[in-house]
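User: Sequence in, structure out. Go.
Assistant: Echoing your sequence, followed by the structure tokens.
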Amino acid sequence: MLGIVAAVLFFVSFLINAADISTNDTFSSVNIMLLGLTALALHVAGIGSGWARRR
């Protein structure tokens, strides 16, 4: 699930950068890309990958 969130954040970051949209400092393309990298790192670490019941 976090992998999908990361992909969406990367796509939004790409659109902001490609369209040269002027945003404030909080929603700049670099900050959104860093949020995507954080979500991707959490996904790779196994957090948010699904609910598994251990027996």
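User: And one key feature?
Assistant: Residues 39 and 45 are 10 Å apart (CA to CA).
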